[in-house]
């Protein structure tokens, strides 16, 4: 059940990708866990999503080096991105309910963009595997290109600027703590997709849903349409 905090005009919907549109976090976080173990960090595959979800590779690198006292190879980030791309060619799946949700949001007349920590190469593979590309076209923004990964707000501010709308008129759909922090820092409304039975981060002002089917109704309320 979504929590609501009042009525607010909506002029743009910005989606995170992994865990919101594409079910890829188990695979990519598992790869990060294996790389962390190779460097001497203790982290299991079972704990990999909780440990690495929503984090950009440069931040993951910093975490591993801090935890292990080691220095990873200069090309570590590029190597991990290549592993992600290879994994997504066969392992990317749509999040349940994503097509119906996107069709409904599009029917509401709301423009949609994507703001992700993933590289554009990763996004191309993920969207090709899930057939999500036609929903967004070139309205996809990568924090790799911006040079400032979440939890910094730059990627979401970039998306709003390209659409020509103020941050306060944007709604972001996220599933990770760094992503929610980025949305709030950008001055945007954040809705967090939280798996049933999980304890979500306690962030003031964040709305919460447990299934994508709930999201259009939240947008209607925020737009004053419901």
Fold topology:
Blueprint: E1 12-15, E2 22-23, H1 25-38, H2 48-52, H3 57-68, H4 76-91, E3 93-94, H5 98-107, E4 112-116, H6 120-130, H7 133-136, E5 140-142, H8 143-146, H9 154-163, E6 170-174, H10 177-185, E7 189-193, E8 207-209, H11 215-223
Helix pairs in contact: 1-4, 4-6
How would you sum up this structure, described in words?
By secondary structure, this protein is an alpha/beta fold. Helices cover 46% and strands 13% of the residues. The protein has helices spanning 25-38, 48-52, 57-68, 76-91, 98-107, 120-130, 133-136, 143-146, 154-163, 177-185, 215-223; strands spanning 12-15, 22-23, 93-94, 112-116, 140-142, 170-174, 189-193, 207-209. Helix 4 runs parallel beside helix 6. The protein has a 6-stranded parallel sheet with strand order 5-4-1-6-7-8. A two-stranded antiparallel sheet has the order 2-3. It is built from 11 helices and 8 strands.
